[in-house]
Specification:
six-stranded mixed beta sheet
Length: about 210
């Protein structure tokens, strides 16, 4: 069930349940202003069984619907094509935020990210070229869908400038270990063969890790 809650008083604004033909899948929802004509927010969610749906902030008015393959992944938003309208990222698919229903407008069409099953990519400028890229740890894709680098570990990822040199690193947590990669090249900096620290580094306290 996808529920909207008032930030003012905690009351329920809407609920989209499993009785709806376009009920939500359990891997996330994203909120953004997809309509530049006003300041109101809309939201988009991944549907169970495949496809995505964009809704007005009232939770009842459907703005766009895209049926299709069940691409694995959380839902993220970022402006990939510099039109000031956020685009929708699911796995390694990027849908144009102006009309997610139009396949001809899709920006990145890889589909499922190359991985062992982890599908929570992070969007960031990994190589300092002024364009956003996306990575799930195993691979990184440029804003046009071409491969920036590949061969990293599977896991949940975060991006940050860990050594304060102005260039981002990609931290990957999966299977109980943590690795850190160079954002621009995918080279290992912490992990087996790492240039900062060479070895296998288990998560303190155990567990497999999560986003």
């Amino acid at each position: 069930v996808l529920v909207g809650i008032s930030g003012a008083d905690g009351s329920e604004l809407f609920a989209i349940g499993r009785d709806a033909p376009t009920y939500p899948e359990g891997e996330g929802v994203a909120v953004a202003n997809f309509d530049p004509s006003d300041d109101a927010l809309e939201f988009v969610y991944r549907m169970d069984g495949g496809g995505i749906r964009m809704m007005d902030g009232d939770g009842t008015t459907e703005l766009a619907l895209r049926l299709g393959p069940n691409t694995r992944g959380t839902v993220e938003v970022a402006d990939f094509n510099h039109d000031s309208i956020p685009d929708v990222v699911v796995g390694c698919m990027v849908y144009d935020g102006r009309d997610i229903s139009d396949a001809a407008m899709d920006i990145v069409t890889v589909g499922d990210c190359p991985s062992g099953g982890w599908e929570a990519p992070v969007v960031a400028d990994l190589d300092g070229d002024g364009e956003v890229e996306l990575t799930n740890g195993r691979t990184a894709l440029n804003h046009d869908g071409t491969t920036l680098w590949a061969g990293g570990p599977d896991g949940n990822v975060a991006v940050a400038d860990l050594d304060l040199d102005g260039q981002p690193e990609v931290a990957v947590v999966g299977a109980g270990v943590i690795s850190v990669l160079d954002g621009a090249t995918g080279a290992v900096v912490i992990g087996p063969g790492g240039t900062w620290a060479d070895g296998t580094f288990a998560l303190p306290g155990g567990g497999t890790g999560g986003p």
